[in-house]
Amino acid sequence: MTAVLEAAGSSGRARAFAPRGPGPLRSRWVTGLVIGIGLVALLSLVRAATGSEQLTSSGTMGAALERAVPIGLAALGGLFAERSGVVNIGLEGMMILGTWAGAWVGYEHGPWLGVLAGVIAGALGGLVHAVATVTFGIDHIVSGVAINLIAPGLTRFLSSIVFTGPEGGTTQSPTVKSISRFSIPGISSGGNALGSLERHHWFLISDIAGVLGGFTGGVSYVTLIAILLVPVSFYLLWRTRFGLRLRSCGENPEAAESLGVKVYRMKYAGVVISGALAGLAGAFLSLVAANNYQEGQTGGRGFIGLATLIFGNWRPGGIAAGASLFGYSDGLQLRAGGDAVHGLLLFVALLLIALTLRFGWRRRWAQTITSAAAAALFLVWFARTSTVPGTLTQMTPYLVTLLVLSAASQRLRMPAADGIPYRRGQQL
Amino acid sequence: MRVLRAWLREALNPRRLLLSVAAPVLALLVALLVAFLAIRLNGNEPFGVFSDVFKAGIKGGQIVRTVDLAVPYFLSGIAVALTFRMGMFNIGVEGQYRLAALIAAYVGAQVTFLPAPLHVLFIVLIAAAAGAAWSGIAGVLKVYRGVSEVISTIMLNLIAGLLIAYLLATYFRDAGAKTSSSLPTKPIPKSGLVPSLNHLLKDIGIEVPVGYSVTGLVVLAILVGVGFWVLLSRTRFGFDLRASGLNPFAARASGVNSDAMIVKTMLLSGAVAGLVGLPYLLDIVNGSGNYDLGFPQQYGFTGIGVALLGRNRASGIALASVLFAFLENASPALQADEVPPEIATIMEGTTVLSVVIAYEVVRRIRARQQQSAAAMIPVAEPVKEPAS
Prior knowledge:
The structure holds two protein chains of two kinds. By secondary structure, chain A is mainly alpha-helical. Helices cover 71% and strands 1% of the residues of chain A. Chain B is an all-alpha fold. Chain B is 71% helix and 0% strand. Chain B contains 17 helices and no strands. Chain B is globular. The model of chain B has no long low-confidence stretch (mean pLDDT 87). Chains A and B meet through α6, α13 and α17 of A and α7, α14 and α17 of B.
C-alpha cells in the first residue's frame, strides 16, 4: 500500500520546474512570483536597451495570452493522459476535432454550445484512443499517430458535407458569432489606469502595467476558464482521491490494481479528460482566436502542447510556465515581428550571464564554461543581426524541448509506467 | 522428410492459417465498413461507389499511377520498419525525407559535370546521407542523453518543416525562377533525372498506356526491399538488430553493443527515409526536378501505416504500399460519384488502427490457445513485436 502511495506522493512533491526543490505550496507560489517579477524587470532592461516598446506592451501580452491558452490546454490534456500512464500523441488530432465541432455547433447554435461541442468531440477522440490503448493494449504511439491521420481526413470529409454555402466549404466553416470578452472598468477600460501607466514607459512599472493590462483587458471568458483549469488540474490530480488513484496508474498499475484501484477505468478517465481538454483547446482556436474553422488551424499546437508537457516536467505549474514562454515568443512575433523578437536574444544572453555567475559561485566549472559560451554566442548573434526570422521563432518550442530533454533530463521525471501497455493480471 | 511434412502440416493447419490471415482481413473489413458508413452519410449508394472505384482502379493507366505512388510509400514503410524491428520508433521519416529531398535537390542542381548514371547515384547518396544525418541526431540524443527517439523525432519533424521554409526563403531558392511564390530551387539538370521504365517494359512485352509512365525508381525500391530482406535475415547485423528488438536484455547479455545498434539503426532508417522524396523529385516524366513549397508531404506518416499493415516484412510492406497507393488514387473515381475523396484518408487511418488492434486480438487468442494446449507447463508469453 505505502509503496504506491509513496511513489505517487513523492512525484507529487517532486520538484516543479523551478529548480528550487520541494517546498510547501505557498513558498513555491512566492518563489514563482519573485521569479516572474524578476523576468519582467529583465525584460524591462532589454526594452530600455533596445527601445522596442512592444516587448512588454499590453497588446503583446494579450496576444501572448491568447497564444498560450491552446498550448497550455493541450499540455494539460497530455498531463491527464500521461499521469494515468497513457502517452497521447493524438492531442493534435483531438484538437482538430475540437476546432471543427466547435465551429459547426457554434455556427448552428451559438458559440458557447460550440465550446461544449468542441470539448465533447475531443473527448470522443480520447475515447477512441482509450479503447485502442487500454482495452486492446496496443502501442500508444501507434494509436496516436492513427488518430492524427484520421482526424484531418474526417473533418475535411464532414466539412464538405456540412459547410456548403457561400462562406463555408471543404476547408473552412462560415463565420461564427464571437464569444464575449471582458475588461475591468477603470483599470483596463474606461479610465484605463494601466494604459496610462504603460504609456509613460517607466522602468518596470510600465512593464508590469503592460502585463496586467494584457491580462485584464479584452480577455475572453474561455481564456479565464483555461487559466483556472491550471489550479483545478493541480487540485484534482494532487489533492483528491481520484487524482491519487489516477497517478498511481501512471506509476505502478500492477500495484494499484492489487490495492483495488480500477486501473482500466482510471486510464479511461485520464485519456477521455485528456481528449476533452485538447478539444477545448481546439474550440478556443476556432471560436476565440478566430471566428471560424479553417483547415490546418491547429498548426502543430498539439505537438507544442506535448513539448510543453515535457518542458513543464509533467506538472501543472511547469506547464503554465512553458505555455507562457512559448505563447509569449509566438505572440511577440505575431504582434511586433522579428525586430522585437531580436531583443529577446539580449534577454536570453542576460539570463545566461546570470546563470554563469550562479554556476561560478557554486564552483561548477563545466557548467560555468558552457553557459558563458552560450551567453557569448547569443550576444554575438544579437550584435551581428537586426532581426530574427519568423521560422526560427516558431521553432523555439521544439528546440527548447530538445535542449531541456538533453541537458536537464536528470531533473525531468515522467510517470514511471508512462507509455507501457498494461493488461490486468499479467506480469511484464 | 518427416520434418518437412510436420512443418507442412503445421503451416497448413487451417486454424493457424485462418488466424494468420484473420488480422489483415478483419482490419480491411473494418475500414470498408467505416467507408461504407461514410458514403451512406454522404447520401450515396456504397456498393455502387465501391465497384466504381474498383473498376477505375484496375484500368491500365490507374495501375501505373498506383505503382508509381507505391514506390515512396514502400521506401517510407521500410524506413519505419527498420526501427520497429529493432524495438524503436522513427516517427521522423516525415522530416527526414523532406529535408533530404531539399538538400538533394539543391546539391544535385549545383553539380553539372557528372555523366547521367553517376549524377543520379550522387543525388541518391546525398539524399541518403542527409536523411541519415537528420535521424542520426535522434540516435545520438538517445544514446548519450537518454532522450526518447519518439519525442526527439517528433520535434525534429517540426524543426525540419520550419528549417525547410527558412532555407527556401533565404539560401536555396533559385533567384532566377519565374514563378517565385513557391520558392523553387534550381532545377536539376537532365543528367540527374531517372528515365521511365516504359521502354524496358515494352521490350519484355508489357504495354504501358499512352500518357502514363512507370517510374524508373521502382528499381531503387526493389533494391532497397531486397537489401532490407538480406540485411535482416542473412547478416550478423540483421540478427543483432532483430535480437535487440525481440529481447534487448538477452541481446545485450549475448554481446550486442546496444548503443552502437541504436545509432546504426537510426542512421540506416534515416538513409532509407532520405530516399522517400526521390521518386517525386527525380522522375523524368512526372517528377518535379526541383524542390519547392508544394513538395508532397505526409509520406512519412503514411509509411508508419504501411509498415504496421505490412507487419514490418518487405513483402508485406510492398503489398501494403500498393494498397495505400490504390486508396489514395481512388480520388478521381470518388469525385466522379460526388463522394468526398477524403474517404480514402479516413480508410487509411482506420486500417492502421484496426490492423494493429486485430493483430493484438489474434495474438491474445493464440496465447490463450497455447496456454490451454500446454496447461500444465507454464508457457512464456510469445515475445511481442514492438508497436504491434
